[in-house]
Amino acid sequence: MEMAQAAQATVPRRKTGRAEKPLNQSYWKKYGVFYFMMAPALIVLLVNNYLPMIGGLIAFKNMSYSSPSFFTNFLESPWVGFQNFEYLFNTTDAWIITRNTLAYNAVFIFLNLVIGVGLALMFNAMRNRRAAKAYQTAMFLPYFLSWIILAYLVYAFLNPEIGIVNRVVLPWFGAEAVDWYSDPKWWPVVLPLVNTWKGIGYYAVIYLAAIVGIDNEYYEAAHMDGASKARQIWSITLPLIKPVIITMTLLQIGRIFYADFGLFFQVTRNAGALYDKTLVIDTYVYQGFLVTGDIGMSSAAGMYQAVVGFVLVLASNLIVRRISKDDALF
Amino acid sequence: MATAATATRTKKLRPNEISRGSNIVINLFFLFYTALCILPLLLVVAVSFSDERAVTVNGYKLWPEQFSLAAYDFLLSDWWAIAESYGVSIIVTVVGTVVALTIMTMYAYPISRRDFKHRNIFSFIMFFTILFNSGLVPFYLVYKQGLQLQDTLAVLMIPLFVQGFFVILIRTFFTNSIPPALVESAKIDGAGEFRTFVQIIIPLSLPVLASVGLLCTLNYWNDWFLSLLFISSDGPMSIQFRMYRTLLDIQYLSSNAQAYSAIMQANPNFRMPSETARMAMAVVGIGPIIFIYPFFQRYFIQGLTVGAVKG
Fold first, then answer.
1. Tens of pLDDT, residues A177-230
2. Which residue pairs from B49-53 have beta carbons closer than 8 angstroms and sit at least 24 positions apart in sequence?
3. Interface contact flag, B244 A298, Cβ < 8 Å
4. Quick one: which of B306, B287, B123, B127 has its CA closest to B210?
5. Is A15 exposed, middle or buried, given 0-12, 13-18 or 19+ CB atoms closer than 10 A?
6. In this structure, what are the phi and psi dihedrals at residue A64, rounded to the nearest 5 degrees?
7. Which of A88, A208, A261, B210 could be cross-linked to A120 through a Cys-Cys bond (beta carbons 3.0 to 4.6 Å apart)?
8. Residues of B (61-100) whose Cβ lies below 8 Å from A
9. Rounded distance between C-alpha atoms, residue A285 and residue A290, angstroms
10. Cα separation of B196 and A64, whole Å?
11. Which residues touch B48 (CB under 8 Å, ≥6 apart)?
């Protein structure tokens, strides 16, 4: 009945479609409110996202500070082409931040995948639902904590004089104390540990949701055929959650040029002695711009990140489309 | 026949169930893992209740060797600053979440309507912000030099008002779960678009709104980055930012505590509980999230899985 009514309602509209004026009137009368509804978000987007995109052009300028007004400075500063980029890529920093950003993110993606799927499989296998819920709650706890709190927790472990690791853990193994916040050597281990500890609950939950969605009949059939539990995981569970695994991984690959600022800034306490192993593009831009005040170099680094990041998102989406059209973002 | 056979077998062992032995192993593993998740927090709590001298001599311990409330006494001497920070965090979180949710939902609805002529343009305007991000420098300059919003509550809220990912999440829910016939019939009953939106669409969308609302709440409550960029020591200091300053330098806290100098005058041997006070500050900061998160978790997981399944 509703369909019939809908059809009736569309007929007169089509008729007025030929006469220009009545359409416009009814269009604005009907849909005009939509534009008002979208206006607040559009204003925020303009200020928050689109204005800065124009401002990104300062990467190609030699900013002067002659006037108190930023806009005057922006308009009057000379264009210098890729000079800022040349300076940036002539430093060793460019290599360090690119290497650190890519390498850490690659390790994070790998750990999130392997451990996330592993935990999800174990949850799914558990017989006691109530216990599984309790473990899940505990595992999810770190996800809710801010990076500031993570910095406190790591500090409690790594404080060179009185931290748990130097006072308790290392003596167990008869090892020497490590001056954590001035020795960069161990941070390629510490940072993945911390990142996984905080974020793995999220990935495990997503993979678990995918596993729970699998039709039980597959397992029943396999069970009848005498497939072992391991065989069931290998031949049923993993192939059926493959689309989710691929999407999640490619989403992360699309963001591989962006590092988690909180992890690299807070957890390392932004210690300069560690920069060789902890400086990533995001912290470099912050450091260069707000601490050192080198606007040219840091906006060039920001632009480098934005453009390469954009290309990577498009590329990873293209790959998702190739594999499974439904899983693509766009 | 076959189903009867499986039924008798499943009584003993459901097909995707594991043996008792591996069940024990998995449980042991998860007990260990649960401990790994909780012990770091317990360590912080224990240190905060310890005597400063015992901590500096013997290191952090999971159980206070010498129980002491000195760290909390010390923080209480500056209780107004902490109360103020809680106030800032609560206002930013509540107002921010309500406004963010409202304007994102109002944006998501029109672009979910198939009969809306410009839905593709406006979807793209939103979507592009997920793909391309112009970086920190111009973002900072717009808020600081353009809008001059440093040291205001507004600068802690506005940047998180609209997030493309959340808008797409809400839009997807509208497209998939609201039958177009419902909108059509409301129209026939004489409701305008806005009225349809408020009285019919919103009540039907509470699950997704709850999920996104909680994600926003967590983002606002845990945010410290905007404070780091835009808040000086005279500005409104959220609890996260106060924790950040405290972790970096406990002196900062004491310089704010007028009571400190009074204590020093009365008792020159007073030792500032710097390590334990640090950890007490962490406990004060963690507080609310620990109590709320078990209740949030369910909606959270809903929101996360909806988001992941639809990309």
1. 999 999 999 999 999 999 999 999 999 989 998 998 888 899 889 888 888 888
2. B49/B276, B50/B276, B51/B276, B52/B271, B52/B272, B52/B273, B52/B274, B52/B275, B52/B276, B53/B271
3. no
4. B306
5. exposed
6. -110, 160
7. A208
8. none
9. 8
10. 53
11. B71, B72, B276, B279, B280, B282, B283
Nearest neighbour of A55 by CB, restricted to B122, B138, B229: B138
ipTM reported for the complex, 2 dp? 0.87
Write out the two tokens for B254: 């004491």
* pLDDT value for B311: 38
Closest CA to B77 of B288, B280, B282: B280
Question: Which tens digit of pLDDT belongs to each residue from B102-146?
Answer: 999 999 999 999 889 899 999 999 999 988 988 899 999 999 988
Residue A181 gets which letter from DSSP? Answer: T
Contacts of A244 in chain B (CB under 8 A): 308-309
Residues from chain A that touch B145, judged by Cβ atoms under 8 A, are: 70
Closest CA to B192 of A267, A36, A133: A36
C-alpha distance across the termini of chain B, in Å: 42
Q: Cβ neighbours of residue A123 under 8 Å, at least 6 residues apart? A: A132, A135, A136, A204, A208
> % helix / strand / coil in chain A, to the nearest 5?
80, 0, 20
Quote the CA–CA distance of B253 and B260 in Å, as a whole number: 10
Contact of B1 with chain A, judged by CB distance below 8 Å, is answered with no
Q: Cβ of A53: how many Cβ atoms within 10 Å?
A: 17
Q: Find, among B262, B31, B244, the residue nearest to A151 by Cα.
A: B244
Q: Of the candidates A108, A60, A94, which has an alpha carbon nearest to the alpha carbon of residue A299?
A: A60
Q: How far apart are CA B156 and CA B100, in angstroms?
A: 12
Q: Do B184 and A140 touch (CB under 8 A)?
A: no
- Terminal CA-to-CA distance of chain A, rounded, Å? 35
Q: Could you tell me if B244 lies within 8 Å of chain A, comparing CB atoms? A: yes
Mean pLDDT, chain A, integer: 87
Residue A177 in contact with partner chain B when CB distance is under 8 A:
no
B137 touches A at CB < 8 Å = yes
B116 φ/ψ sector (left φ>0, alpha ψ -120 to 50, else beta): beta
Q: Which two tokens stand for residue A30?
A: 């009907």
Residue with tokens 């632009």: A303
Whether the pLDDT of residue A1 is over 60: the answer is no
Helix axes A238-254, A295-323, angle to 10 degrees: 160
Residue A192 and residue A182 in contact, taking contact as beta carbons nearer than 8 Å: no
> What distance in Å separates residue B265's CA from the closest CA in chain A?
29
B282 vs B276: CA distance, rounded Å: 10
Nearest by Cα to A258 from B224, B158, B311, B135: B135
B192 confidence band (pLDDT: 50, 70, 90): confident
- Structure-block tokens of residue A168: 């308790």
For residues A49 and A44, give the distance between their C-alpha atoms in angstroms, rounded to a whole number. 8
